[in-house]
Amino acid sequence: MQERQWITTRRSELDALAEELTKRLQEVQVERDELAIAERVLNRLAEQVQADAEAVAPASAKVAGRAVLLIPHRGDAADEGALPGDYRKILAIVREADGPVQVRAVGERMGLDASVARQAGAAAGEDDQARRPRLAAQTGRRAVHRTSVTARAGRNWRAPGGGS
Hints:
Elements lengths: L1 H54 L4 E4 L2 E4 L15 H12 L6 H7 L4 H26 L6 H8 L11
Antiparallel strand pairs: 1-2
């Protein structure tokens, strides 16, 4: 008789243990499913960050025989050391000057061909000529030809009545 009682008691203990383990197993499976979802989300985010980084990767071109970035890479760093080398050189040249610095002088110090700058300046001047009547109409000021102002003032063109 004791054996039957022992078997019944033991069976009851095992049933309770099986019920507890089933409940615990369900909790573990729920947590595993949540972790699998989190892993998929993180993988998708990493793929998206990678795709964004590749899509925003700056393209390079040759200007005056030198490779330059068409769109410089930007970061959140506020430190000057994070700037590309050419930018740091430009900052150093401007800081060394006693006053305003002409673009041509910066280009020469950096070893750039001045003829490229002249071509770009001529194209900008043509564009400026086309915009001048529209700018005059918008501002209510008369348009003044840049070369006449430059010849009289001996410095860069400024809009009539403009600030420094």
